[in-house]
Structure prediction request, 292 residues.
Amino acid sequence: MNKFHGTGVAMITPFQADGQVDYDALQKLIGHLIDGGVEYLVSLGTTGESATLSKEEKKQVFAFTARAVNKRVLLVAGIAGNNTLETVAEIQAFDTTGYDAILSASPHYNKPTQEGIYQHYKAIAEAAPLPVILYNVPSRTGTSVSAQTTVRLANDFKNIIGIKEASGNFELLNQLMRDKPEDFLVISGDDPISLQMIAMGGVGVISVVGNALPKQFSSMIRKCLAGDFKEAQASHYSMIEFTRLMFAEGSPAGVKSALKTLGVCGDTLRLPLLPVSADAAEQIKEQLAVVK
Prediction:
């Protein structure tokens, strides 16, 4: 497949019981995902609890992940923020060794205008040493990147190669698919509607669920990309309840619970996030036994 087509996984960051990064578990997770057949990995996106890691911890996780992946699959670094100058400085200082692109969410909390979002990404594009994937996730940031702004950025900056689109807004998606440059990648950032987005012309997903079900989820996505939606639907339907549970009590708490059941890592999170309830953990365990 073409670059960044298929299934990318927004990796969790495993923690030891005392809250320190669990590098042994991170190594195990990376092996679990690559063996599961995913096309690429994303380090320290939202699912990686990047907001709770120090700059030094991020540097160490990025470096460790690159060494562990060892170019077996493509690797993307999550670098974002709501201070444009600081985000640009972080990108300029980033050691790109082993990485293929940067994923950057639009600014959170500030609620900039569309022109502010454009100027933020313009500054990133002009500074970035790697291709940039935009990330629109208004449920977390408070502001949506419009289709018009995305298309403008795609046309103005050749190193802005795609967008992880997690708005769930199909009116926006219709406009984006119609107006974007042909080679601009639209990647689902919302597991439950990845099949539908690929049917509209999306090229894949950056998945949370894929942490726990890399084989099942990546197989479904490949079927979608091959146009075999009948077979893909069967997989999609079998994972609906599991996918719901991944977000029912917050992410990545749900998928960390699943990974604990699978023996990949523990379910420790950093505050303000907490593990899922005992009831939810039991439901997740039950669903792991039935997904196909």
